[in-house]
Task: structure prediction
Amino acid sequence: MTFSIVALDKKMKALGVSVSTAVPAVGSVVPHVEAGVGAIATQAQTNVLYGIEGLKLLKAGLSPQAALETILQKDLAREKRQVIIIDMQGRTAAFTGKENVDWKGHIVGKDSIVAGNMLVGNHVLKAMVKTFEATEGKLSERLLKALEAGQEAGGDKRGRMSAALLVAGEQWISETRPVLDLRVDAHQDPVAELRRIYTVSTDYFQISE
Result:
């Protein structure tokens, strides 16, 4: 039901997630980020514990793969989940359960992972990876560009409704805010609306990452 990307900017020491789906309020459940620790997207039949507990395990010193396996072992409904994780070292982990609806899958890129389920096809994720790696500049812009590429490629086959962008770094995102947390909860073109909100926020808060 969703397409997303988690990514790391090693130079700026920033981590982030961008995501869109055809159900309301995706930003309240899918993206999880902690500065200096990691970024996680938990989707499909979403279980927020993958984000909450996953960040705790990363902070405790586990690798993304070890953290993911720890949570999966406790989850009887794991085949309905889709989870992607990246940490500050650039280590990654990804899981797409067998009971997710096609098209489903994930791709590990350079300092990023993209994932989706109920998509029009795998070209959605390929477009996201290609765009993220070809885009220069701050992580927030690269994440948003990747999301736009996924939507342009077809995105969620059921339609559109919500989108979100969540970024955190060791330095504050702007002079006044440590985290960039933008959400579109119910809109006919959520990715385009997210771009509008991002542009307003960038200008107003002088966002640097």
Remarks:
- Strands lie at 2-9, 14-21, 31-34, 38-44, 81-87, 92-96, 105-109, 112-117, 162-169, 179-184.
- The mean pLDDT is 94.
- The chain has five helices and ten strands.
